[in-house]
Design brief:
heterodimer, A: about 120 residues, mainly beta, 4-stranded antiparallel β-sheet, 11 strands, about 0% helix, globular, B: about 110 residues, 7-stranded mixed β-sheet
Chain lengths: ~120, ~110
């Protein structure tokens, strides 16, 4: 059974940093691209970033480019999102999501339960 | 960037009725790379449809997707009590990936 366990969210001041993790199990982690998708309170879904199975290619939404960095450790079956220079508009539930199929730019067949990041002073 | 516009914003229907949800793209979605998700309060989204019309694993056949180019539709043939939720479309034909604003299907 595929499982994705998001963690690392919390309250952080504007300008601060946070690192999110997503522990994966139930599939061959290194064979699939992974992504982060966020949802601000009461709002819709917003794609944040995606990374290839090898970790060699990464893609970002313009709204986070230069501030958020996606990475993965295939030996630990874990996906990360390093979040720097955080802003109030980054406040959201962050979901990790597994790629459907072989592509990096794709839809998502499994999602984590989400972890809440709140940026506030 | 491809902008997806979903309509209506809210659909008020009774169990057993048919639901028709629309997703319109600002430009053509290549290869019909269009997905639909269901999200219930406090839960992660669930993939229903990919490739515009293919049902994901374990999705009941009352859910169907259709369309191509810029106009796509999700149809729920007979609403069950567990189908009342918010539905999102997503295009993955080009980067950046984008989602529609969602359609809430509520009990009338």
């Amino acid at each position: 059974e595929v499982q994705l366990l998001d963690s690392g969210g919390g309250l952080v001041q504007p300008g601060g940093s946070l690192r999110l993790s997503c522990a994966a199990s139930g599939f061959t982690f290194s064979s699939y691209a992974m992504s982060w998708v966020r949802q601000a309170p009461g709002k819709g879904l917003e794609w944040v970033s995606s990374i290839s199975g090898s970790g060699g290619s990464a893609y970002y939404a313009d709204s986070v480019k230069g501030r958020l960095t996606i990475s993965r450790d295939n030996s630990k079956n874990t996906l990360y999102l390093q979040m720097n220079s955080l802003r109030a508009e980054d406040t959201a539930v962050y979901y990790c999501a597994k790629a459907y199929g072989d592509y990096v730019i794709t839809c998502f067949d499994y999602w984590g339960q989400g972890t809440l990041v709140t940026v506030s002073s | 960037e491809i902008v997806l516009t979903q309509s209506p914003g809210t659909l008020s229907l009774s169990p057993g009725e048919r639901a028709t949800l629309s997703c319109r793209a600002s430009q053509s979605v290549s290869s019909s790379y269009l997905a639909w998700y269901q999200q219930k309060p406090g839960q992660a989204p669930r993939l229903l449809i990919y490739g515009a019309s293919s049902r994901a694993t374990n999705i009941p056949d009352r859910f169907s997707g259709s369309g191509s180019g810029t106009d796509f539709t999700l149809t729920i043939s007979r609403l069950e009590p567990e189908d009342f939720a918010v539905y999102y479309c997503q295009q993955y034909g080009s980067s950046p990936l984008t989602f529609g604003g969602g359609t809430k299907v509520e009990i009338k």
